[in-house]
Amino acid sequence: VIDWTAMSHRNDVSAGILAFRRKRGLELLLAHPGGPYWRHKDAGAWSIPKGAVESGNLLACAKREFNEETGLTAAGDFIPLKPIRQKSGKTVHAFALEGDFDLSDFASNEFEMEWPPRSGKRQSFPEVDRIAYFKLATARRKILPAQRPFIEELVQRLHGEPPS
Question: What is the rounded distance in angstroms from the CA atom of residue 147 to the CA atom of residue 100?
Answer without folding.
Answer: 21
